[in-house]
Amino acid sequence: MANVRIDRLHKEFRGPTGTVHALQELTLDIADGEFVSLVGPSGCGKSTALRIIAGLEVPSSGRILFGPRDITKLEPRDRNIAMVFQSYALYPHMTVRQNLEYGLRKRGIGKEERARKVAAIAPMLRLETMLERKPRQLSGGQRQRVALGRALIRDPEVFLLDEPLSNLDAKLRVHMRAELAALHQKLRTTMIYVTHDQLEAMTLSDRIVVMNHGVMQQVGTPEEIYSRPANRFVAEFIGTPSMNMIEGELRIEGGRPVFQGPGIAVPLPQAPPRMPATPQATLGVRPEDIALVPPDAPGAIRAKVTVSELAGAERYHFIELGSGSVILRTPATTVLRPGETVALGLDPARLHLFAGAGEDAA
Ligand code: ADP
């Protein structure tokens, strides 16, 4: 078991088309036993970070420490890690048992000890009845459990998981996600998990690191990241459907901050600590934080419904607001008709204000 310190990690790739800064000054302390996910869009540097921790990639600068030990220069095999990849790459000609034992055998561990270890982990992954099967006789989920077992059997200090569920179909992914969470509960080994799937990160992790363009955007518990996103990128990346973004201006009226967008004026509980240089601002509101209110409610915003979609237990209503549209999320029992005019209320405590407008707003 070990806590992991990632200290000012930087990685550049030099290629014919120039230099790519895959990772910029990544610093992070991961507690012993913690489950931390690195999440972000494709190319944001999350795999590079994991590969450096694994020793498969050399950083341009920065250090990795496991407990007090600086392991930056150690070979992968000397780091006491186990890695699980998206492609589980089992040996097809070997049985499940032989696949599980392979790493132990290579390290010269005797037959009895190997059998004891297989017997200990097989039930944990519900593989007891499958030990003599070949990988082709297993389902995708079972194969992925063997891949996890192969990592587990080595009893590593740190688990590194790179999109381990992304080859599974949607239903199985949800199932394996729960299994992985249960496994972590049981083992309490440090796990570092890479995914582009924010929902996977939200459901599995003690803490999430949101990355974009090689730069850490925010680190926090799933709750913190969801309810207090540090910037517009995090706000839009985390949560489905995405946070609604309304472009407008922030003004002070009668000493109070008011957000004004096309067709709406929303008083805010407090001005940002530093008023931005330009009034351009973006108001963020999650689809579940827009309420349907009586038409005569104070501050009600009148708007027209364009489309309503049923999504199982919920409904998503697309509503024209100013020059754009917002999504309102309600229980499925709330039925709105396209063309209908509704009155909306925004709870000031659940609004997010971002300086500037458009994609680059921070
Ligand atoms: P992610 O895992 O978030 O999709 P990566 O860590 O794989 O992102 O990549 C981060 C950036 O570094 C990308 O721009 C990618 O193209 C670049 N990159 C990754 N590996 C290499 C490499 N071996 N050579 C050149 N560029 C690379």
Automatic annotation (TrEMBL):
Keywords: ATP-binding, Nucleotide-binding, Transport. One of its GO terms (cellular component) is ATP-binding cassette (ABC) transporter complex, substrate-binding subunit-containing. GO terms for biological process: carbohydrate transport. InterPro entries: AAA+_ATPase, ABC_transporter-like_ATP-bd, ABC_transporter-like_CS, ABC_transpr_MalK-like, ABC_transpr_MalK/UgpC-like, Mo/tungstate-bd_C_term_dom, NA-bd_OB-fold, P-loop_NTPase. GO terms for molecular function: ABC-type transporter activity; ATP binding; ATP hydrolysis activity. Belongs to the ABC transporter superfamily. This is Sn-glycerol-3-phosphate ABC transporter ATP-binding protein UgpC. The lineage of its organism: Bacteria, Pseudomonadati, Pseudomonadota, Alphaproteobacteria, Acetobacterales. The gene is ugpC.
